[in-house]
Amino acid sequence: MGTLPRLGILLSGRGSNFMAIADNIAAGKIRAEIAIVISNRADAAGLEEARKRGLETRLIPSKGFEREQYDRMVVDVLKEKKVDLVCLAGFMRLLSAYFVSHFPNRILNIHPSILPSFPGLEAQHQALQHGVKFSGCTVHFVDENLDAGPIIAQAIVSILDEDTAETLSARILKEEHRIYSEAINFVLSGNFRIKERRVIQSSR
Length: 204
Ligand code: GRF
Fold this sequence. Notes:
Elements (H helix, E strand, L loop, with lengths): L5 E6 L4 H11 L6 E7 L5 H8 L4 E3 L7 H14 L4 E4 L8 H6 L4 E5 L11 H8 L3 E8 L9 E8 L6 H25 L2 E4 L2 E4 L3
Parallel strand pairs: 1-2, 1-4, 2-3, 4-5
Antiparallel strand pairs: 5-6, 6-7, 8-9
Bound molecules: 5-O-phosphono-beta-D-ribofuranosylamine.
């Protein structure tokens, strides 16, 4: 068996992606354990949910700290908890080069658009504003740029004439919950290489 890979989850809000990951671990669909859930916001519902599930949590408020100063505190906790893979799940902060260099190709993020279209805030609203017919979600490795980094998985969602940002977000979220866990399994398998920006599955 060996020891399980240890995940560190970072979130700032609702935490539905975190819950989907935790549910899939509990169901035996991801062979890993959650070592720590960290939030930069005291009012994050996801933090409360993690506590309810008996997971170890840490509130590290970000207000008033410089980016790297804050990231040093987070990296310290992730190292203390021996985290192998960091999963950003609605963590509303850019990471510093310091953070990224401590977990090379070991930080994932999920974003509610087909990147590189519509990075940043309110991606679903941006998609409707632009009038695209398809949007979706992307899991990618994290670097110090916003919603950048090599792409691991994407899922497409059709945009309907009657969609609002809320209805579109709800359909995209369903796909987020599915592909984030798949991407975690893919990365934990180690069965890939990164060639320039392309994440390529190794032949078995
Ligand atoms: C998701 O739409 C995710 O793609 C984006 O932030 C949102 C977080 O939702 N990065 P939740 O907190 O996981 O419910």
